[in-house]
Specification:
The chain is an all-alpha fold. The protein has helices at 14-27, 34-37, 43-57, 65-78, 82-94, 98-105, 114-128, 135-142, 148-171.
């Protein structure tokens, strides 16, 4: 349960309900995730976060949908955000990538391909020691065929997941 007031789908005023409905339709989902509901007291930020969430997880970007979920699962795990870890690992399972979720949850990254492993190594460093990122880290990503658009998308996904994890943890993430 959140430590601040959160407007659920049944009791949301029309403006919030409209954002919730748009998110559900865009994501073919019956339920709005908690990391968006935490913004429900500010319709403007709720709408912005819902749009950013959709853009970062869309199918047409430089990262594959499973890679976005993989990165979010890994970053949430690093941050000890059980709610985020559960949400994103479930998305991986729904994409029939349950093995990837289990490898991440069990710290078995050696089973991943070189490209996915390189993305997670970058995600780890950006999450735990962002000031230590250098051009060598980006060159390691380029070495596994990530272009600059993919590197930008990777950095955005890591940063957004860190933000949502901190919002969940700072405002009371619901129990698993």
């Amino acid at each position: 349960m959140a430590w601040i007031k959160v407007l659920d789908e049944q009791n949301a005023p029309p403006a919030v309900a409209a954002v919730y409905e748009q998110w559900r339709e865009a994501n073919a989902s019956a339920q709005v995730p908690d990391h968006l509901k935490h913004h429900s007291l500010s319709t403007e930020t709720l709408a912005a976060f819902a749009q950013l969430d959709q853009v970062l997880s869309r199918q047409a970007g430089p990262l594959r949908p499973y890679q976005s979920a993989m990165i979010a699962t890994y970053v949430s795990r690093i941050n000890h955000c059980r709610c985020g870890t559960a949400y994103h690992s479930e998305k991986l399972r729904a994409m029939e990538k349950g093995g990837v979720a289990e490898w991440i949850l069990n710290k078995q990254l050696h089973y991943l391909g070189a490209r996915d492993r390189a993305m997670l190594l970058y995600a780890h460093k950006l999450t735990t020691d962002a000031a230590a990122i250098t051009t060598a880290d980006l060159e390691a990503l380029r070495a596994v065929a990530l272009d600059d658009a993919a590197i930008l998308a990777l950095c955005q996904q890591v940063a957004y997941t860190n933000l949502t994890n901190r919002m969940l943890l700072g405002l009371g993430a619901p129990p698993e």
